[in-house]
## 1
Amino acid sequence: MFLEMAKNDCAQFSVPNLTGEQTAEFLRKMLLIRVTELKIEELYHLDEMKTPVHLSLGEEAVSAGVCMHLRTEDAVFSNHRSHAHYLAKGGNLGAMIAELYCRETGCSSGRGGSMHLVAKEVGHWGSSAIVAGATPHAVGAALAFQMQKKDSIAVVFLGDGACQQGVFYESMGWAALKKVPVVFVIENNFYSVNSHLSVREANEYLYKRARAFDIPSCRVDGMNPLDVYASAAQAVSHARSGKGPFVLEYVVQRWRMHVGPGDASAQLYRMPEEFTKGYRRDPIEEFIAHVLKEGLLDSSRVQEIRTRVDRDVGEAFVFAQNSPLPDARDLTKYLFVE
Amino acid sequence: MPWTKLQVESEEPEFDENAGDNARKLDFEKALFEALDQSLEYDPRVFAMGQGINDPQGMFGTTTGLFKKYGLERVFDTPLNEEAAIGIALGAAMAGMRPIVIHNRPDFLLMAMDQIVNHAAKWSYMFAGQVPLPVMIRACVCRGWGSAAQHSQALHGLFHHVPGLKIALPATAYDAKGLFISGVADNNPVLFFEHRWLYKHQSCVPEHMYAIPFGEAAVKREGSDVTIVAVSHMVIESLRAADELAADGIEVEVIDPRTIRPLDIETILASVKKTGRLIVADLAWTTGGFAAEVIAQVTERAFHDLTCAPKRVALPDLPTPAGYTLEQAFYLGAKDIKEAVLEVIRTKKVS
């Protein structure tokens, strides 16, 4: 029943025409998220990253695919599971890892931790760990862009849990009313911590909620990078051309537990169908198989991208580990902006 | 509504005499209107929104008709989404705007606690000062005419507990305009609490834009016998009490902190050093409130300057009753302040 539900209603898209460069960049973004998260997981037991980490392993295609269509001036808003959004938008990798190590060189100078990343220079103005908390921020930024007569757009990433909070509906209402350029990106991994969506909602098709506000919306297979890319192109161009908000629901698989590495208690909370053969999919491997088959990239280019990402991630960890910790004398710094 | 005429006050206390050459006598509400008008005119990044902001009544006359001058893009009515409204203001501020959000009552801000406490108050610290949130949130404390428990709460104490917010409570027209402009100019989230009964009060207000810095208390009346720290409408009540007490030869000093965060504790300490006696008159409940905080700070820092126990003149720890006889028993004013002063005067000094 659950597998059926997850497959149902996904909109169909034709295969997007990606150039070689776009393909390489899309792959690089996904791999950057994957390799970074795996490295965090590998080193987490050392207890040097003293901050709760919410891993996006398995969900890489959504952040990467959506951000492929964004410009530096566009804004993204994110939540507790924030690494992927930050990296996909182009946030500095070293500054993110340093933040996980709570260093002064971290993107939030060690004041935010893993759930509160910021990369102002690329339109990432801070993520909230209150799941729907950043949703109105995106609408506000989009409203500002409209007032400023800019053609920038705002994108907010939110989970299926956030879709249960009232402010999500308030935000959709405003977005529709003011017709602001915002895209709501729902990453539906079906779990709020360990509670499955089916025990939390009578109607699991989250995208349908946008209909009450006359906001166009669709459900997309978020494990298929090509569908993610194609659907995001549609939503972003809708918002950017002044037609108002768009809601995208991506059905994704959260490979790890809610917080931290691994998924030790998977047997105790996951749906039985999830352990059947063929359930688990890997968006990156699917994408690589596609691009090799279509000749968009050759295997040496793919390897080159992997090598570069591995090197970047390695360097970022070295940078973080060798960075200074915040000075306790600066405890009260930053309560207010000057 | 009949109560608007009955319960507003128009007696002008004597203060703000040195407001400047081009100052006129202005209503508190007109001073706020002028401050908003000038802020909108001064900076195209400023916009104002709120439920009912463009009603003919115009938020007690503080916004009336401004949408005609600045357009509906900059002065607009909103859905009844208190939480989203604040969140949207924060998002717009991140994108470079300077929003002013107007709520009719502090009671409604409780709907937006997540955005105010979890977001607005945290953004500067959490992101090491990189993302300023120049947002001002206005709300008007109501009193009387059976407004009852959900339309009359003075909640500044609740927000006062939270680091990362600035809180202003003007008592005079002059302060209202100057603090408003400071609030709009500030790069941090500001809560601006008005009081319904102050709107018809007049004082001298300069025509030009001026800012009253946050964290600077005003000594509204000088005296040597007792220090009264009062906020918002309680400043007016304290000045009335002071007038009556002066007739009996008791000179009280009335200090209006004007902003409770930041709080100008130094001015209060200096006054207590002189008088040795402290009363705090607040609009809100007694327990765990602003009055308690002032007394705690003074006791910690200047215990030996106190010659007797400090006193709070603050509301009983109860929801506001609707019935007018009960309301009368619930609210405090000049009479209660006067009694408190007489009580501390009678108290034998600790030697």
## 2
Amino acid sequence: MKSALKLAAALALALPFASQAHDTWMVPSSTVLSGVDSWITVDAAVGNDKFYFNHAPLRLDGLAVTAPDGSAAEAENVNRGKLRSTFDLQLKQSGTYRVAVVNEGVFARWKEDGKPKRYFGKPEGLEKALPAKADDLEVSQSAGRVETFVTAGKPTPVKPVGRGLELAPVTHPNDLYAGEEATFQFLLDGQPAADLGVTVVPGGSRYRDKIGEIELKTDKNGKFSVKWPQPGLYWVEARAEDAKVSVPKATKRRLSYSGTLEVLQP
Amino acid sequence: MRKLLLPALLAGAILRTAHAADLNLSVEIPRLDVAEYHRPYVAIWIENPDQSVATDLAVWYDVAKKNNEGTEWLKDMRQWWRRSGRNQQFPVDGVSGATKPAGRHALAFQSSAKPLSALKPGKYAVVIEAAREVGGRELLRIPFEWPPQKAETLGAQGEHELGAIALDLKP
């Protein structure tokens, strides 16, 4: 029982869509900065209530920060607490940083001598975990991206990664203002993700009665627009499933994206 | 007739731009009775009808801090930072200046000199935005037409971070 609970907890942490109940997100201390060599600190967590740390920390194994010039930037003071993970980042360049936690893994379940077994982890470890005779084997591949954007000085273009499910800006992600409309595009392996369900959730639910989520759908070009009702942090989420697998024996690929955007008072 | 009209229009245009005009501003920073007071950061600019920036007139911040550290809070003048500040390198010649104490501060600009010499005839607004450490933020807008047809004084009154603003236009 205890190990089953542990496994469930591990799944919830690393594979957000495996546990429908919990979402993943990052909270940057600032998204728009002036000045030189400024620092930001970022919290990352898993939980239902957007931007309240009340469940579990987000694993930062897949943390990848991209500087404005496209190079990798190093996060400092990476720490994992009980309810959130944290790290610091110095913005040594002028422009827009992409701060992302990218998780790629596999989930497998099978029966061994009639007993249910499962594996979750890195694709490389799957072969070793599988017995010679695995009955009713089901393998799915996962690709998740949790991210946010931060700009020092003038916003610079954010280049698509071209892998997995991602949010490509039409409106710059650090140029968002309450009462104005912003447009984004969802890409799946670099191609427009048409007809994709998108959920936008404003932060601060503790101080109101309704969650106030905005349900949207991307158009045939993968684009969607949202008019921000008020300033604050917003969580943007989308999920997709297809059969474009790269892991042997996998039949399904599950993709997820969750981004944190800050909308300012004009 | 057309032949006559074109030179006449041109002459009119030349006359208008060549004619000297003045834009004088009086910006009041109010005296505040607060426990911890820091002089506000203030940005003053001329705005186009679409809210883009026609030209900056002044930015008052902690210019004397070492390593340009005073720029850290420029973003708190959030409208100006969005429209103008973030596109620039600091300090900006002829625009950056030190923060000012409480009181009335006069700024004078002539159509014959930069930045007004580049201002095309049209509708504009002077915008004044102030942001104060451990304090608030306030933005005031005074619409005007350039070049001025007659001498006039336009004004706006701030409520907490800014006091009385007077815009004097002289053709």
